[in-house]
Specification:
By secondary structure, this protein is mainly α. Helices cover about 70% and strands about 5% of the residues. The protein has 9 helices and 2 strands; from the N terminus they run H-H-H-H-H-E-E-H-H-H-H. Strand 1 and strand 2 (about 125-130) form a beta hairpin.
Length: about 230
């Protein structure tokens, strides 16, 4: 519990900083996190250098670049491309953060309470299908709630929650697969009780990357006016 409180003391100001910082400061924060993440990858690869294919090593080296999706999502400008587009990147980012937190937390508790069927036993033996479904349900629910509170657009929140429910858990499994390939439990030890920077941002990195990508695709805007609307 003490370790988790220390981590919360570190993480809460960091997320507040990401939300309220001007672009230059936000990029600087992300760049520092990126450098820490690259060092975590370097240390992990040192322990598994000989048994990994070159292409896999390259992909692992590129993994920390997903951190830059956080400031990109935070800095999204207003959009008139489709009805109901979120007009505040900071609020959209916060909606994603709360949805990620709900998905991760309730997937854990749901797995403890109802878990029977292994989700991906070779990648993450403790994760269960039942826990994943519980986490997805709460992630979508929290997305709807904070879509209403922060964006005044419940459908946008439902969409963010849905992306989080599945992409976030996929990001968690991706990092678990990387750590299993490297033969380590955590990529780093910067955050007591929670591993390193990449261990904590795994789900959020993938969620923010996907949201930024979708936001840039005109076809996505054209296909979803019925869903993201006032």
């Amino acid at each position: 519990m003490k370790q988790r409180l220390i981590t919360a003391a570190f993480g809460i100001p960091l997320f507040i900083g990401i939300v309220v910082s001007p672009p230059a400061v936000l990029f600087a924060i992300t760049f520092v996190l990126f450098l820490i993440g690259m060092d975590e990858i370097r240390r992990g690869l040192q322990k598994a250098e000989e048994r990994l294919a070159q292409m896999l090593k390259l992909l692992i080296w590129l993994y920390p670049l997903l951190l830059f999706s956080l400031p990109f999502l935070r800095a999204l400008p207003p959009s008139n491309t489709y009805p109901g587009a979120p007009d505040n990147g900071a609020r959209l980012f916060l909606c994603a953060v709360f949805s990620v937190w709900a998905t991760d937390s309730f997937a854990y508790f749901g797995g403890k309470a109802f878990g029977k069927t292994k989700l991906a036993p070779k990648v993450s033996p403790n994760k269960t299908v039942e826990g994943s479904l519980v986490g997805a349900a709460f992630g979508i629910g929290f997305g709807a709630l904070f879509g209403w509170l922060l964006l005044d657009k419940v459908p946008v929140g439902i969409f963010v929650g849905t992306v989080t429910a599945f992409a976030g858990q996929a990001g968690d499994l991706l990092e678990s697969a990387i750590k299993r390939k490297l033969g380590i439990k955590d990529l780093g030890g910067l955050l007591p009780g929670h591993g390193g920077v990449l261990d904590r941002f795994d789900s959020l990195m993938v969620v923010c990357s996907l949201l930024v990508l979708l936001y840039q695709i005109p076809m996505f805007h054209a296909l979803l006016p019925w869903f993201i609307k006032y």
